[in-house]
Every structure is written in structure tokens, then in C-alpha cells.
Design goal:
single chain; 98 residues; two-stranded parallel ribbon
Length: 98
């Protein structure tokens, strides 16, 4: 059973999630009680951290598996421009966050 504190944190995370479209991703993790999360386009890891924190409401942290993919340092200037993308931080920096 989810603790009241964990649920309150989740509701706060949903209320402050920007852009709003990412609320749906957090809701899916919460409602599905997801323990294995796969994300394509990790960028800086902020959304990954939110999904992992949401998953720990119902499952212990050691049972959560997160696999995230991005180009990180392999993103070329041409790809950056053609995909209208943002330059992600170095992969090691994102690993340290997660």
C-alpha cells in the first residue's frame, strides 16, 4: 500500500510537471505500478528521475529497472539541427543523476 507521503509527492510531481504532456507518462507509471521503465530520448534525465520516483511508490527502489537511450556525445551538429533537438548533457552526468 502506498504511503500517504509518497502519494502526496506524486500528486505534487503531477501538479508541477512541465510541459503538461509529461503528466500522462507519470500517470502511466503510477497507475500501471510500473517497475521496468524504458525511455527513448533520455536527454538530461529529469523525466527519468520522476518516473523512477513514481515507480518507488509501490515497489522498493532495488526492484525498479530503468533503461534509457539517447545519443549523448554521439549527436552530431547536423543531427541536432535536422531533428530540431536539444544538445543533451554528457552521458556520465546523466548516469550520476540516476
Amino acid at each position: 500500500m502506498a504511503s500517504l507521503i509518497a502519494r502526496a509527492r506524486y500528486l505534487g510531481r503531477i501538479a508541477t510537471c512541465r510541459p503538461h504532456r509529461y503528466r500522462n507518462v507519470l500517470r502511466l507509471v503510477y497507475e500501471g505500478r510500473g517497475r521496468h521503465i524504458v525511455e527513448v530520448g533520455t536527454h538530461a534525465g529529469a523525466r527519468a528521475l520522476q518516473m523512477i520516483e513514481t515507480a518507488t511508490i509501490f515497489s522498493p527502489p532495488e526492484s525498479i529497472r530503468y533503461d534509457g537511450f539517447d545519443l549523448f556525445e554521439h549527436l552530431t551538429p547536423e543531427q541536432l539541427q535536422s531533428e530540431f533537438s536539444k544538445q543533451p548533457p554528457p552521458e556520465g552526468q546523466v548516469r550520476d543523476l540516476l
